[in-house]
Structures are given as C-alpha cells and as structure tokens.
Write the structure tokens for this entry.
Amino acid sequence: MNAPELDADGRRYRGAAPGQRQQERRARLIDAATEAFGTDGYRNTTVTSICAAAGVGKRYFYESFTDSEDLLLEVYREVAARMIEAIHVGIGDVEAEIPTRVRSALTAYFQLILDDPRVPRIAFFEILGVSPTVDRAYHDVLDALIDICMALLTPYVDLDNHPAVSVRMVVLGLVGAILIIAQKWVLDDYRQPLDDVVDSGFLVVTAVLERIGSVTE
C-alpha cells in the first residue's frame, strides 16, 4: 500500500514528516546553488534558476532562506567547512614531524581546490564584495584558518623572543600568502603541477618557521 500523502500541518507527506521534507528541499537548494555559484557565478544566478535546478517550487525557497545572499552564505559556509576539514585531515598524526604535517596539510588543501574548481571560485571570488554581512563571514573563515595554523605551528615557535600576539600577525601573513598562491593558481587554470604549488607554499611556511623557531626540513 502506498504511503499517505498529507498536507504540511504537522502531518506526514509521502512517508516523511514536514520537517524532514523541508530539510531535503533545503539540501537540494544548497547543492543546486553550489553548482550554479561555482560555475556560472553568484551574480549570474537567480533564485528562479536555482529552484528549477533543485526541483523545488519557488515558494519553498523562502521557508529556508530569506534571499539569494542568505543562500550564498550557507553555500560558502559549507565550502569553507570542506576546506577546513581537508586541512585537518592533512595535518594528521600529531606524532609526525612538523614539516611532514605542514606538507600534508598543504597537499590536502590544494588537492581539494584542484579536484573541485567550484570550491575556489566560491571561496576566493564569488564571496567578495557582496555585502558587509558576507564580508564578515569571509573574515570569520580567515580567523578559523589562522586558528588552525596557530595550533599547528605555535609549539615550534620561540615564544620567549616572539610573543603570541606577534606570532598571530605572522601567521595571518602566512595564511594570506597561501591564499594568494591558491588564487593565482586557479586564475592561471592550474598550469603549475600540484607538487610545485605545494612546494611553493611549503617554502613560505618553513622559511618563516626557521626564522621564528627552530624547524628545519
């Protein structure tokens, strides 16, 4: 016997509770927006086209998002979470030598950028200059990346001669340098081999560590 199809007044519809249906629609909208923002661009995409791609009626868009910017923020958060997760996985074994962990983290980060070009387009380009709210989200992710690097690198830094507040500013510079390397790589259509890009980032990080700590490859 077929499952009951009831309305949205707290009853079940096609075997799923209303809240579950809403979550499914929301997920489809995020998936469709990730594809659209990551290929056509945020400014070239409409709510109507996202709804069509997601197979969701336009009226249902507004049960999850206030407008396209709200959806962009959610897509960006998911993309940023993928980047941060890749870095965490790359850092790996805490018992490994710091150069190994740095290289592994950089490899995982750049590999994700290479494997899914939607990620850098959204995270590096589509997110910029949209609104002050979106700018704050971008800087929140930047702070999260700095926190990850601080946790990784601080144990190898000479804090007696380099106070933590100064180290954080240095790490900010490192994160900015890696972001610029990644952006240029994307803009150049990935012409440099992955290993060369990783080597460039690794050189930047270890050069700084050799200056403020005692790390050598």
User: Anything to note?
Assistant: The chain is about 70% helix and 0% strand. The domain at 68-212 is CATH 1.10.357.10 (Tetracycline Repressor; domain 2).
